[in-house]
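Example for tutorial group B:
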């Protein structure tokens, strides 16, 4: 039992580190630890090592929103939260944003656990029925989303065009010889991180004093957003190839809400991200589909995942989420108190330079074509600025991943 406690503590510490450092993904640490698993299990049990993987995944999923919300640095899981998070930051409500993210993720796990008996019955049946119709389901979801999440026909037109153009960009770049990791790094950095930072620089944005009121209201919209996020996290388990960013779009559609506020959006995004992390582990048992890197490591270590394992992972996840929720708020508050001491414009310029260097260095390291990466990078930045200018959601840029997925599942590519 002491080994389990140590695994949880180490997993939380590691999850905080990977969550706070942009570019350091939990999968990077995971593959290193997994590659050493034969040596590690000589000194500890396999279940302890699995506990570490579960803990780091849950903790990372809750902490990684902090750099996204405060500095606009995107990961594939948090990229749709940047624009809503920045709106709250520049309204002086960063403390509120951190709490919405933390509690949204925590309550999504609670909802998922409460619904677990029902999910154990429904999801295997649903998976067998839907797995051959994923393409049609995605098309239907996107049509509903583009209609219901925009209040006017002109914004629906703009959103549709941005979605289609970003999808074409995704098809071209992701099917090039760059390789998946370099292509995603180039596109996501340009579309979400660099574009948001450059827009803030151009607008000469200054972070206003943040409100000291740290209370949030658990109202009807919060409950609806959390529930939609939690359910959407389960749906992702049935739709291989999709991640929390696309899940947030599905969750938006589930609410049928035309007046989605920044608060609703980031609660939903957090709920999707955290519940998807847990469900990806449960999916090993339910549908024999380990749909995340961490769940693959766990399934390989255990070989045969039983119901007892699933219940144990749920318990570990609940403990971790409870601790990570508190730590996320404490760390977020600590950073927010000091954020006004820094020059936001200079910090944004520095981040633009650093992210650009990371893309270029990774391109050279991986043997990619530098001039082609630069062309894709500039194109994605230009496209990423348009939603800011047109005052529409950056989630429409998720066409870069969803359109290729639709094309693939419809058998057109």
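The residue assignment follows.
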């Amino acid at each position: 039992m002491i080994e389990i406690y140590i695994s949880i503590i180490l997993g939380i510490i590691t999850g905080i580190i990977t969550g706070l450092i942009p570019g350091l993904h939990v999968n990077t640490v995971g593959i290193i630890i997994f590659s050493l698993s034969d040596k590690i299990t000589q000194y500890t049990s396999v279940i302890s090592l699995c506990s570490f993987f579960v803990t780091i995944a849950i903790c990372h999923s809750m902490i990684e929103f902090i750099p996204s919300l405060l500095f606009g640095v995107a990961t594939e899981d948090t990229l749709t939260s940047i624009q809503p998070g920045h709106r709250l930051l520049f309204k002086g409500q960063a403390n509120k944003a951190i709490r919405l993210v933390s509690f949204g993720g925590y309550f999504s796990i609670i909802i998922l656990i409460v619904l677990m008996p029902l999910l154990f019955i429904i999801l295997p049946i649903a998976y067998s029925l839907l797995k051959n119709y994923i393409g049609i389901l995605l098309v239907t979801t996107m049509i509903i989303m583009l209609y219901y999440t925009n209040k006017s026909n002109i914004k629906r037109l703009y959103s549709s065009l941005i979605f289609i153009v970003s999808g074409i960009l995704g098809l071209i770049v992701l099917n090039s010889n760059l390789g998946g990791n370099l292509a995603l790094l180039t596109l996501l950095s340009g579309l979400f991180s660099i574009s948001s930072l450059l827009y803030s620089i151009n607008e000469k944005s200054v972070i206003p004093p943040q409100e000291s009121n740290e209370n949030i209201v658990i109202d009807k919209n919060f409950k609806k957003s959390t529930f939609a996020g939690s359910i959407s996290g389960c749906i992702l388990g049935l739709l291989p190839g999709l991640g929390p960013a696309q899940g947030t779009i599905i969750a938006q559609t589930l609410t049928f809400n035309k007046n989605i506020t920044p608060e609703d959006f980031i609660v939903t995004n957090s709920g999707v991200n955290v519940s998807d992390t847990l469900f990806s582990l449960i999916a090993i048992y339910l549908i024999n589909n380990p749909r995340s890197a961490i769940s693959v490591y766990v399934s390989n270590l255990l070989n045969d995942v039983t119901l007892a394992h699933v219940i144990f992972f749920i318990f570990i996840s609940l403990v971790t989420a409870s601790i990570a929720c508190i730590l996320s708020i404490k760390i977020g508050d600590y950073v927010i108190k000091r954020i006004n001491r820094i020059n936001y414009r200079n910090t944004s310029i520095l981040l633009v330079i650093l992210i650009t260097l990371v893309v270029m260095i990774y391109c050279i390291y991986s043997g990619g074509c530098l001039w082609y990466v630069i062309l894709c990078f500039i194109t994605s930045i230009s496209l990423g600025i348009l939603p800011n200018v047109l005052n529409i959601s950056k989630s429409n840029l998720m066409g870069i991943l969803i359109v290729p997925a639709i094309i693939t599942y419809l058998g057109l590519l």
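The radius of gyration is 20 Å. Compare this with the pattern of hydrophobic and polar residues in the output above.
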